[in-house]
Write the structure tokens for this entry.
Amino acid sequence: MKLSTRDANAYFAKPDETKTGLLIYGADGMRVALKRQQVLAALLGDSAEEEMRLSRMSGADIRKDPALLMDAVKAVGFFPGPRAVFVEEVNDTAAPAVLAALEDWQSGDAQIIITAGALKPTSKIRKAFESHPQAYAAAIYDNPPTRDEIETALRDAGLGQVPQEAMGALNDLAQALDPGDFRQTVEKLALYKLGDDAPVTEADIAACAPTSTEADIDDILMVVSEARTQEIGPVMQKLVAQGATPVGLCIGAMRHFRALHRAASDTSGRPAIFGPNRDRMLAQSRKWGAAKLETAITLLTDTDLQLRSAGQTAPGMAVVERAFIRLSMLGGR
């Protein structure tokens, strides 16, 4: 069965130990790994490793020895409690072993947890999990964490008292950081507040926030936001040479302009923007204004949809560069 993003997040927090298995796949390995850690902890508890209720192997292992997965799934544990077999970095070269294990799975066998990179709809493994009546498939997209995910991370870290203003600041920070960096920041915040019963404040968050995030992408975002149109081409060439992707640039731009819009719409007098470019971003938000920033976000949303469209034929980087030029000209008006 295929899980939507909302259903997947609920399932990761409370998995069903009677199910056959779960496939977690996506282009961002860190996001996939964090979801896998969450579901295994919720499914097996903290002592699974010590009690030998969790077996680990790689896709390459079961490709070389297809019986390895089946043996682990059927093995009888010495300790009571749910069991799982975790297989990482799987692709369709390991499909024979995975499909055989799914087909022969019976109640009482270890649950099969598999992680993979981006899988096409035609992937044998993806189709097997999506069509299996007792197994799930969940796609992990390169989207910022939702409020529910942020609240879950805070609870897991033992941070219970987070007022609305501080939650807004954490949300802004989550838009700017990679998932792993945000998780480390939350853990750092928990240590920072250890023994301190006072609610989390924006000052606490600022003290724990990284000093910089995605500096390379920041270069192009500053150029676009400050309407330096003539510099877009050279900076884009540099980013392409460094391995930047069209979707990654579009997501980064979306986060940036949403942060500017929140700052432009702020009525508290204390807009929550973090990072080394805070002063420049505050100046940008004032220059653009909420109305033009809404137009910019709409343009970026349309660009993102175009990049992800199955009928997209134009080079992705050209599409993004054209969008950046339009944004820069909009900001310069």
About this structure: The chain has a mean pLDDT of 88. Residues 10 and 91 are 26 Å apart (CA to CA).
